[in-house]
Specification:
Order of helices and strands: EHHEEHEHH
Radius of gyration: 25 Å
Largest sheet: 4 strands, antiparallel
Number of strands: 4
Helix content: 10-25%
Oligomer: single chain
Shape: globular
Strand order of the largest sheet: 1-4-2-3
Length: about 170
């Protein structure tokens, strides 16, 4: 088994947007992660905390399925996560296995080693450190790429010497 991560995705409204959930959980279709367990949690405007399994929502049924699925997230996770949320918001609690790292983890264990630490650093924190140290930010992989300028082999070709004549 690869490293497992507990991930909380918070949203500013009491209702979870299905498109956000399906985009995140689409990662499991690529085989990069396995979804072990997931809960939807809401902290109402009155401060009441509610939690539900994904299968309780018609649009989310079947997203946690297969041999890796296990009901491991519980009330203590909901209570702890509730402290992170503002009133009138919700969160998706995910327990994910990083399948992409499974082969490396198996090899390390076979060599008598162990994964001694694993720290997830939020992208905005990494960006703050880069800026503070004067390290250029990498290009945004989601930014539209400009169209390349067309290359015309004009110079040195017959009929073009670099200056346009008025005789055309």
């Amino acid at each position: 088994m690869g490293p497992v991560e507990y991930l909380v995705l918070a949203f500013p409204e009491e209702q979870l947007r299905v498109q956000a959930v399906t985009a995140v959980l689409g990662l499991r279709k690529t085989g990069n992660v396995r979804l072990i367990d997931a809960l939807v949690m809401t902290k109402t405007a009155a401060g009441e905390v509610l939690a539900a399994e994904l299968d309780e929502f018609h649009e989310l049924r079947g997203l946690v399925a297969g041999r890796e699925a296990a009901p491991l997230l519980g009330p203590e996770d909901v209570t702890e996560t509730a402290e992170l949320l503002s009133r009138g918001s919700c969160a998706l609690l995910l327990l994910l296995e990083h399948v992409w790292a499974e082969d490396a983890a198996v090899a390390v264990r076979a060599a008598g080693g162990r994964v001694a630490a694993s720290v997830r650093i939020p992208a905005d924190r990494l960006e703050q450190v880069r800026v503070a140290r004067g390290i250029p930010l990498p290009p945004d992989p989601h930014a539209p790429t400009p169209e390349p300028e067309p290359e015309f082999p004009l110079e040195g070709t017959a009929g073009f010497d670099g200056d346009r004549s008025e005789e055309d």
